[in-house]
Amino acid sequence: MAQEEIIFPNNIRTIRLNAGMKMTAVAKKSGLSLSAMSKVEKGVRRLNQKQLLTLCGILGCKLSDIFIKADDEVAEQWQAEMQRRLDENETSGLKIFGSGVRVLRKKVGKTIAQAAKDAKMTLSVYHKIEVGQRELYEDEVADLARALKHTPETMFKTIAELFEKGELTKQIKKVGEKVRSVLTPNASASGMDLSGAIYGANIYDSARKKLVPVFGVPGDKNITFKKSDEKMIVSPVNLENNVGMYAIIPNVKRMGTMFPSRTYLFVDPDTVAQPGDLAILLSEDFEKLGLGEKTGANVVMVREDAKGKLYGQVAGPDEKIAIQSVAGKLHKVVQIVIE
Q1: What is the mean pLDDT of each successive set of 10 residues along the chain, which is 339 residues long?
Q2: Is the pTM for the entire model greater than 0.70?
Q3: What total of structural domains would you count in the chain?
Q4: Buried b vs exposed e over 132-161: b needs ≥16 C-beta within 10 Å?
């Protein structure tokens, strides 16, 4: 049987062992079965955004810590294992058969879900057959053939003919390229430094589309601001895919009754706030602020005086901050979420 391809190489096992935690305990706390947790650590199963954040909380690590770095001890082992599995699956009869099934399904105009239902299989089982990760059992042959509008004999014969004609080569390569595109070392497009990650930038960016980093947390007097992925939250649906978005936790003690506890302000750094907008006013230029560097920030209501000059009104009518520079320091709050 072909082996499941590695789609999520990670440091989860290493982090878990360093934390002195058993897999059973982590699986239970994260709401995953032991089998699912084992597959995650082996890299053959991904986690969704919420599961990633939950796991980071359980293990006490950052999201970027999960991805393989060039100087990690396991880096070479992961690379060798991924290549071995890819090579094995490229020449596997299951890979050929699965690619043939996919071609036949498309010829009859069925979606994967429709074909799975007609073949009396779960979507997961059917998908594994198409990608060459599961063999076909004798009692499943007739139902699968019928779903593809074939008899068992004509199904196998047609797939063999497709392979002999080279018509499955493109499909087999396409599957391999899709897997390699996930595994290929690449720079993160999210703007977050993955500190030499060799595998994970693409996966990180995929997760990042639905996650927002919390750059600002309450300080002694205002807000301590730092570009970091140490804390992340799930993005509101209408703000998904905005990788530049960040969140702020307002200092409710300073803001009085303006915000209740557990409030998050979602901020778009590419949108300059106008008079009448709620905004974040930074002490330093956002673009010049390096990863991990700290600065101060205030939640302000943008106002304009009689001379047309902007200022930020903080908690009360008498507490004002002059806005010297709009570019790079004044960002509009685009949504407020109260948990």
Answers
A1: 69 93 95 92 85 91 81 77 69 80 94 94 88 82 95 92 82 59 53 57 69 89 88 87 86 75 90 89 90 89 88 75 81 90
A2: no
A3: 2
A4: bbbebeeebbeebbebbebeeeebeebbee
